[in-house]
Amino acid sequence: MYETKEVDSFCYVDGLTRRIVKGWIEREPPITEIPWTPLKKPLESSTVALISSAGVCLNEDQPFDQQGERENPWWGDPSYRVIPKTATEQEIKVCHLHIDRRFAEEDLNSILPLERLGELESAKKIGRSAENHYSFMGYILKPDVLLSDSTPAIIRGLQADEVDAVVLLPV
User: Hey, where are the domains in the chain?
Assistant: First the structure.
């Protein structure tokens, strides 16, 4: 059988922050239903996109707002970035202060597995990798703008690329 392991989502924050965030989470209304949409065609025929919460951007992109994050550790930049499927490790940087970036700097595939997705495409396990993938900054405690602006824009991009399945990479 499978071993159950608890993940410490707060391992990079201090004790006070941990208690405050856990208190906020407990006050939020419970999610009553998780929407599920089954694939309409086999994975071997599907276009797959990646969405990472690691704050990944191209070197030439405007970085995620780390100064705002430094000034107010309770705030996270609610914007998003588009990462083309051809992007390489040398063309990408991670702009997120709430995560340990060392593992991403050692292997981009740990937070945005573009190479692994390409391998699945070559092996015909998926139909194709989407032309574009997306990243936003996790640790957004007030997600209003993320939900009202960024999420619909990402969805429009996914629809334009005719994406059938998305792999979410929470970091």
Answer: 41-169
